[in-house]
Amino acid sequence: MPASGRRACLSVDPQKRFELSPWLFMQFMEPLGATDSSVEAAWDFQRDRWREDVVAVTRTLAPALLRWGGCFSSYYRWREGVGPRNRRVPMHNLLWGGMETNQVGTHEFVDFARSVGAEPFFCVNFESDGRKGWARPRRGGRRSAGPAEAAAWVDYCNNPGNSERRRNGAAKPFALTLWQIGNETSYDRNGFDCNAAVRRTAVFARAMRGADPDIDIIAWGDSGWAPRMIDGAGEHFRYVAFHHHFNSGLKDSPLRDTEYRKSPERTWKHLMNAWKSTDERIREMRREVEGSGKQLALTESHFALPGRNRCEVLSTWAAGCANARILNTHARHGDILKIATLADFCGNRWQVNAVMIHTPGKVSYLQPVGSVTALFRRHGGRFSLDVKSAPAALDATASRTGRNVFLHVVNTDMKKRVRARLAVEGVPIRSGRIFEIAADPMAEVMVTNPCVFDPVEKVLPASREWIFPPASVSAVQLVLE
């Protein structure tokens, strides 16, 4: 198979552009009830601890930030999940169905996050985001919680002298610096309108920062709400939250059911187009917060595909390449996008999860989105660099820490190799390593082949030329003289 292009150059400007936030590699944990057992499946009820295989695979994923929340936050009462486990009251999961045991709560979530090297944060119950059906369901009592309960949660976590937390076995504070108010608040006409959300955000933020003035707050600003949220409550928060769920953006998408298996070329074309939707969405949010000094927090983002709930196409390597392109898109907007995710965290049904948990007696493993996220997370730099030139088929971003320059490269051609000479303008390269994932685009990961998308380490030759395999994702580390 011939390599396309001759003596093409993948060239990088070594000058730092802006600092990249490690929180671009965020995950979020939401109890999904009967839809996908997620949290309940990750907990070992026999030993009262997290499953060891879940902890191990999450350490490989290496999320820098882990959120507890989602729509579940709108009817979550945090005190039901603290204290002795035999006294915790189960709750009905109003959106996702089924019952939650509350065996996993504040302490367990913080312990999990810290054990895998992630910073935990909570999305508070924002008066059920104004949704009356969740605030007072037919069964289950009052599920709405106001600013006093949110402030009490901040105090519970952060006040060194909080007696309630100390009675529950944590003498030291959790010291959580980040908190979110509101989740998908604008998505329901039966909830808060924008004006009400702005007013209540200010009230919540004042109460929460009264408990700890040093916390940073994320406020909901999707659906065109960002300008009014900033005008009315901007003094109280640092980040504007929005979500993005996407398909390919092209007509007649095969990314559904088993349609994707009929034509690999057509499936590849649609998956390779998906990054454009994310780019457009972030650009829209950039315009809405321009000049305000606020930063963006993409606290939920993933493929949202019609058809069977499993979305099996997302277990293919083609989807891994597509998600790698979206990670590059996040990095290109890293001057203002400081928090971002690209998958739900864990579960045993939805293929959109980064981690798949299989029970009983099976080992958890990374989905393709998890494999590329772990690759870029482990081999990336602190500061963004400008890619000055690259062969047309290569989607590449660059970053730097000290004398180490990192390239995140996706070969978007599913059939042809791409040869390129690697260069850093004005600086000799002393050595280089490539961490490469290359596979048939239609190859699928499952519990019987959990390591099929593990990266392979290779050495950059003295010529500084490299051939990127078709349909590959590579993290390149260059050591400069």
Rg calc:
23 Å
User: Taking all residues together, what is the mean pLDDT?
Assistant: 95
Structural class assignment: alpha/beta
Biggest β-sheet, characterized? 10 strands, mixed
The share of residues in helices is: 25-40%
Strand composition percent = 25-35%
Q: Any chance you could write out the topology, listing elements then pairs?
A:
Blueprint: E1 3-4, E2 9-13, E3 26-29, H1 38-42, E4 43-44, E5 49-50, H2 52-61, E6 65-68, E7 91-92, E8 99-100, H3 106-115, E9 119-124, H4 132-135, H5 147-158, H6 163-167, E10 178-181, H7 194-211, E11 216-220, H8 226-233, E12 239-246, H9 264-273, H10 275-289, E13 295-303, H11 317-332, E14 337-340, E15 344-347, E16 353-356, E17 365-366, H12 368-378, E18 383-389, E19 394-401, E20 404-411, E21 417-424, E22 429-438, E23 456-459, E24 465-468, E25 472-480
What does this structure look like?
This protein has helices spanning 38-42, 52-61, 106-115, 132-135, 147-158, 163-167, 194-211, 226-233, 264-273, 275-289, 317-332, 368-378; strands spanning 3-4, 9-13, 26-29, 43-44, 49-50, 65-68, 91-92, 99-100, 119-124, 178-181, 216-220, 239-246, 295-303, 337-340, 344-347, 353-356, 365-366, 383-389, 394-401, 404-411, 417-424, 429-438, 456-459, 465-468, 472-480. It is of the alpha/beta class and 481 residues long. It starts with a strand and ends with a strand. 51% of the residues are buried. Helix 10 (275-289) packs parallel to helix 11 (317-332). The protein contains twelve helices and 25 strands. The strands form five sheets. Strands 1, 2, 18, 19, 20, 21, 22, 23, 24 and 25 form a ten-stranded mixed β-sheet that branches. An eight-stranded parallel β-sheet has the order 3-6-9-10-11-12-13-14. The chain is globular and about 70 Å long. It folds into two domains: 3-15 and 384-480, Sandwich (Immunoglobulin-like), CATH 2.60.40; 22-382, TIM Barrel. A hairpin with an 8-residue loop joins strand 16 and strand 17. The model has no long low-confidence stretch (mean pLDDT 95).
